Amino acid sequence: MIESVALEETALSHILNAEGEKIQKVVAMADATPEVLLATNKSVESMVNAISKLEMILHSKLSAFEGCLCEKETTV
Fold first, then answer.
1. Window from 2-6, 20-24, 48-52 with minimum mean pLDDT
2. Alpha-carbon gap, residue 24 to 6, rounded angstroms
3. What is the DSSP annotation of 5-22?
4. CA 10, 64, 60: angle at the middle one, nearest 5?
5. C-alpha dist (Å) from residue 65 to 1, 4, 27, 62
6. Considering only Cβ atoms within 10 Å of each terminal Cβ, which end of the chain, N or C, has fewer?
7. Distances (CA, A) of 66 to 23, 24, 32, 71
């Protein structure tokens, strides 16, 4: 389960990085209009919000196993 969460975290970090690159490319465009910039911002904001929700789910998954990890460490 922990490995699964770690892999999901890695995937989410790649998505966030791609969203950052998207912003950089649009801002660097010579013909970027305010409308294009606002649409890009809205798109990225939507993705960041979705990722934040997924982060909360992943956190709750890990929290469910928190007691198990502590018990294992003390018995070893």
1. 2-6
2. 27
3. HHHHHHHHHHHHHHHHHH
4. 50
5. 9, 13, 43, 5
6. C
7. 37, 39, 48, 9
Between the alpha carbon of residue 44 and those of residues 17, 35, 75, the distances in Å are 11, 14, 46
Which position has the token pair 């939507």?
A: 46
Cα 38 to chain centroid distance, Å, stands at: 21
What residues contact 56, with CB distance under 8 A and at least 6 apart? none
Pair of tokens at residue 38:
């606002």
Q: From the CB of residue 32, how many other CB atoms can be counted at a distance below 10 Å?
A: 13
Tens of pLDDT, residues 11-29: 999 999 999 999 999 999 9
* DSSP 8-state class, residue 55: H
